[in-house]
Every structure is written in C-alpha cells, then in structure tokens.
Design brief:
- The protein contains 2 helices and 10 strands; from the N terminus they run αββββββββββα.
- It is α+β, with helices and mostly antiparallel strands.
- It has one domain: Jelly Rolls (Sandwich), CATH 2.60.120.10.
- The strands form 3 sheets. Strands 1-2-9-4-7 form a 5-stranded antiparallel beta sheet, covered by helices on one side. Strands 6-5-8 form a 3-stranded antiparallel beta sheet, covered by helices on one side. Strands 3-10 form a two-stranded antiparallel ribbon.
Length: 161
C-alpha cells in the first residue's frame, strides 16, 4: 500500500521547488508499460506545460487536486480557449477529466500545488503527447508571456507571493 499523506507529499513539494522546471512528479505505476499511469505532481507558479493532446493512441486524463490551485484550460485546433476549470479543493472544485483528442494545458495558480493524475498507459515518448504548434515549447522565452495571455483572456491572475 502506498499512502498519500504529508510524508509522501512534502518531499515531492520540496523537490518541485528546487527543480528548474518548478515541478516534480512521483509515479505510482512501476513501469512505463503499465496500462494505467498514476502520479502525484507538485507544481509551482511559473511552471509551463505546453498545450497538448493525447491521441493515436487515445488517452483519457483525470486530475484531482490535493492542495493549492491549478487551472486547466482546453483549446480548439486553432488555439482558441473553449473551456477552463480551476481546481481548488477549498472551493469544492476537486478535479477534472480530459477526454482524448482535446488540447489542454495546466497553469499553476498557487505555489506548492499538489494534484493526482490518472492516465491510460503505456507511456511511449514518441506518441504520448502531441504538442500544440500554436503555443511556445517548454523552455522558450515566450512561455511566461503565453501563460499571461491565457490568464488575461480568462480575466484571471496569479496572486503575488
């Protein structure tokens, strides 16, 4: 049994703070070939997950918030926002499921955010994610401006710490 408690989460949060990517994950699944992937993610303000979708093979993704706040945004094929949801357990917004073939991204709204993800496996880096051509790649200098552009379109902001 793997227990999801402070003892498991605190080291992941610490590693996420220290990471250049401002995030860290912990995998419950033992191998990339596992048919169901389960992960805990610790994420901080400023992390960037490029909009992407899972298709061919189709994969459903579910996210459940454990602490903090994170925004999930869905897009159409041209990069227009079609839906969004702020996961925040304190407000009763516990999670979201993203169907296959839907462009989506996550924007962390609070440091030390932790969420649980479940996604179909297996993991093959050649076909796991298809990244949106209309958004900057992770590591590009335009990432933070793109995050701000998405937040502005949704009339949202990230609180200053």
């Amino acid at each position: 049994m793997i227990k999801i408690n402070k003892g498991l989460i605190d080291p992941i949060v610490k590693q996420g703070k220290e990471s250049d990517r401002k995030r860290k994950n912990f995998n419950f699944h033992p191998e990339a070939s596992d048919p169901m992937h389960r992960m805990i993610h610790a994420s901080n303000i400023g992390t960037y997950v490029q909009p992407h979708k899972h298709e061919n093979p189709d994969k459903t993704e579910a996210f459940i918030i454990l602490q903090g706040k994170i925004l999930l945004v869905e897009f159409d094929d041209e990069g227009n926002i079609t839906d969004h949801f702020i996961m925040d357990a304190a407000k009763g917004n516990y999670g979201v499921e993203v169907p296959p073939r839907h462009w989506h991204m996550l924007i962390t709204l609070e440091n030390d955010t932790v969420f649980y993800e479940v996604k179909n496996g297996p993991w093959d880096p050649s076909d796991d994610k298809f990244f949106a051509p209309w958004a900057p790649s992770e590591g590009d200098k335009e990432c933070q401006a793109y995050i701000q552009q998405v937040l502005d379109k949704l009339d949202l902001s990230i609180p200053k710490n």
